[in-house]
Amino acid sequence: MQAIVWQDHFFRERNMRVPIMRRSLRNMEYYMGKDPGGSFVALDGKKVIGSILSHTWGSVGWFGPLEVNPVCQDKGYGKSLVAASIDYLKSRGCTTIGCETMASSPRNIAFYMKQGFKAKAISHVLYKRLAPVLPDAEVPGTRPFDSGKDLAGCKEMWEAIVPGLDYSPELASLTAGKLGEAWVVDTEAGPAHAIVHTYEMFEESQNAIIKLMVAGKNDDAIAGKLLDRCEMAGAIAGKTGMFLRTYDANPPELNWFFKRGYELQGNSVRLILQGQDEGADMLHVSCWSG
């Protein structure tokens, strides 16, 4: 169903016929494993015709992807799925609730705004082609994440972004699912850190994905080291490209990525139903997009 939904979306809104790209089983297990109680489906009889996945990061909750079979859209299934996810996120204590959707889709944006969401800022999809590197290559000043040593300091940095924000589920799922690597640069403000996924998000994908980077208050030099190490991890794993999403309300500025070889691939709109948006002084790369 997922592939059909996105094929229909691109044809309807952009008049584009795109090849079928199916999420890998590993990708779905990663999403569902973090919040199994927040995974919902819509049924027509016994047939699954829609689904939504919820994600909790402490006080911050978001959902995505939301998918409804094209022949069943505009019948209230999507609205019901969103309502179920919101109820779940509230039950988990989330005080900030939102999502991201394609900026090129007025239909999607209107759908969420009719349910009380407000558009905040743009989230950019960036891509870089990776050059091959030697397996023993290093980035000076970086080291592997150590939960016992680093987690408390990471939580202090997350608290500066949004009170109660907790990325621990991402670090736990990284280890449990062997999804990639986490790297740290020690700073006076705490352990600046990044997570890179080198698993296959889509079947036959050749790309890695930076899921998270927190590098202190506007510290471009530290962010550069973390980005270099994530790119190196992707290249060593045999990936040919790197994706990331960066929220426009946070540093670093988009030009910083352009200077490092990234290209803009697309944009999403971040919408918030309730709660506090992210602070704008902590250098922070993440996204609310499934």
Descriptive report:
With 290 residues, this protein is an alpha+beta fold. Helix content is 32%, strand content 32%. The chain is built from eight helices and twelve strands. Strands 1, 2, 3, 4, 5, 6, 7, 8, 9, 10, 11 and 12 form a twelve-stranded mixed beta sheet that branches. Strand 7 and strand 8 form a beta hairpin. Helix 2 packs across helix 6. The protein is globular and about 55 Å long. The two termini are 15 Å apart. About 2% of the residues have low confidence.
What characteristic shape results from the CA principal axes? Answer: globular
Low-confidence stretches: 6-11
Helix content: 25-40%
- Biggest sheet descriptor: 12 strands, mixed
Structural class: alpha+beta
Instruction: Quote the distance from N terminus to C terminus.
Output: 15 Å
* Beta-strand share of residues: 25-35%
What is the count of helical runs? 8
SSE series:
HHEEEHEHEEHHEEEHEHEE
Give the quaternary arrangement of the chains: single chain
| Cα gyration radius (Å) | 19 Å
